[in-house]
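Before going further, learn to read the protein records used in this course. A complete example follows; check for yourself that the lines match position by position.
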Amino acid sequence: MRPSDFAEADLSEVVEQLTTDEAILLTAGVGFWHTHAVPRLGIPAIKVSDGPNGIRGNHFFMSTPAKCLPSATGMAATFDTELMERVGLELLAEEAKLKAASVLLGPTCNTQRNPLGGRSFESFSEDPHLAGMMAAAYCKGLQAGGIGACIKHFLGNDKENDRFGYDSIMSERALREIYAMPFMLAEKYAKPWCFMTAYNRVNGTHVSENKHILQDVLRKEWGSNAATMSDWFGIYSIDHSINAGLDLEMPGTNKWRTLDLMNRSIQSRKITKRTLKERARKVLELVQKCCKGAPEILDGDGIEQIGDLQAGREIMTQLASQAVVLLKNEGDILPLKPKEQGLKKIAIVGGNAKAVVLSGGGSAALKPSFFVTPYDGIVSALGKIDPDVQVTYSEGARAYMQMPTLENEIVTDDGRPGWIGSFHSHEDDNSMRPVDKPLKTMHIDETRIFLSTDYPKELTKRFTLRLRGQLKPRDHDCEYEFGLLSAGRAKLWVDGQLVIDNWTKQKRGDAFFNSGSQEEYGIIPLKAGVSYSIFVEFCNVRAPADSDPDEALMDSNGGVRLGGAEVQHPDDLMASAVKLAEEADAAIVVVGLNADWETEGYDRTTLDLPGRTDELVRKVAAANKRTIVVTQSGSSITMPWAQDVPVIVHAWYLGNATGDAIGEVITGKVNPSGRLSLSFPKRLEDVPSHGHFHSEHGQVRYAEDLFVGYKWFHHRKIEPQWHFGHGLSYTTFEYSHLTLSEPKVSDGDLNVTASVKITNTGSVTGTEVAQLYVSYPTTSELTHPPLMLKAFAKVKDLAPGNSEVVKLSLDKYAVSYWEDRISRWVIDDGVYIVRVGRSSAPEALSLSAEFKVEKRLEWNGV
């Protein structure tokens, strides 16, 4: 019998035959990534995999190379649900099959409440309609390919600090209209196979134990038949989560739902066998969907495959290039045409130009199957249109938080990138003395080593990893600085000299999902042409710290990270970049954040770019009037120099094809069509949740209520740096002839169609995003946001002089609000205003029209 034969099983009969112990086992995972199998009844285990912008597979350590998509904010910036659905089907589903994963842990569609949130880059937008429609397209495409979507984190997980304990205190209207809405739209249009619950509380109760959210909203109102899964280590009880409707606890390590504790809970009547089997059945329904969706996974050998490392590059580049947002282009400096513009020398400067910045950090991180830096992508694109153009480079100002990893700087004795690692058991489980003879020796091609649970299982509980390699010779004398941190303890020796001791005593840090130490540093002189031996010893028992004497065993989050870079005086770096800019005909400054600054596990503390980045931009712009700034981040950043530079391109995190996409946009092979999926404020103090974003005694008060993102800026009449929906093109468009159909009411729904004519009034073919915003009647008894995105459409490849009539459909979602007193959605009678244009900026919404709802309506469900 093949595992996939379970697709035809009668679930009622299977559930009837389950023993109590088998039902218990089905409600919790096995290991880190699998559900439980019951061979007696032909029930196979299914495998799940991170993450929302690519499929890493089972391993954090020495993971299988994978395709990395743009951050969710970048994908949403395309405003292209058709492309998103295609990516889900053609790329994500096929990649999941290579990784032998039946369920993808994504998409993330929490609301961009504050750009400081560590995982903001993982979520689509500050706007619930855009987020929900992109999430629905993602799920629809993925599941059409036979792979289950596990949409997350349901709900209110909008920050990282204190994420296991904080209480998101919000009104029921905000919960429904803002934070649940993206999930609701995904349920309506795509029906995700699984919902992952958030770590946090909502209005006093952890979501994994929250009957109101899991039963009243998800099951009863929305009618969802999805399985519900906890986030990893995201349940905090047995009976509360079982009774609230949490079907599956993940992972299976250190779990609550053991046979002993669950049986005791049954015996003490805290849970019933009936409820237990209801939860087990939902897990079996998920398993059965996976058997039907991609049976070859269940019948396969479970081994992760690499596949063609370059496969999918075309669609990845297309998605990445359409995500790029042209924020400013004074003097039509872009696109760069060196011959036509007389550009013979172009300087590329900035800390992100040659850095490997493809994603934010945490669950979204993966090992790319290939990666193109901005520098390489721009040089390649320029070379295709003018092979004679000269390109110079300087880092200018360093942008990293942690020292850059050294995969390409350390080699083995036989010349392979990386080093040789040997795993050593200790004399016993309580000993700190490693056995000299290694249990396993292997080539390791990464210097950020997050072992998670991927170390050899034969090791004692305490173990040592020894890492040996050679630092590549320099072509000049220099000083070199190393940075070492660990979730455990570690030391670094260079040519036998102890350089860093992060072993004896540590300072606690945020790395490795808050398990790591702070980075410790050491500097050594290097001679030109000399190769230096590198030796790191790591033990998975962390050292004591002043703030925490606990020498905890890192049994699932152990790791060590070695980084390094040549020591260069910041003034010298700055002067080098400015000099190159002065000598060049144009300067491209590539700056931004990376996975150290934006990551799961902790929140950002500022919207500023790191270090002396802002100073670099200003000085380069002063030195060269043809300065192009390319920014990389997954969420908003401040740009105090925005008025001082002629061109700004926001590139998000673009995944493997980062450089290809940036190069194509800068040189005009692709006419940019990306639009901002969130507002960029001028300063942190203008963010709606400023002052009540942080957890205070475990409480986070959502005091801005409905006024999230651009809704706040319009309500308070605050001018952001860049409006939600903003983005320029290399051509121009004119909007005209806005008309609305008469509202039609049938089967409890309301339908209005808006038609608008869009004409390309420029000189090149371009793509435009038409955005429709609705304002509710001023006669309403309640306060509503002054402007709400309710529809959008993308007009693709419109030739100069050509026009296209776009139709934008509105339904009950476009005109409804949540009525607390009756727990229903309400459509007020009155006059609704429709505004259509290029962004949410008042001056961009050039057309408006009205329609009238004659009679109040109420509805529930989806």
In short: The chain is about 25% helix and 25% strand. The longest helix spans residues 273-293. The chain has a mean pLDDT of 97.
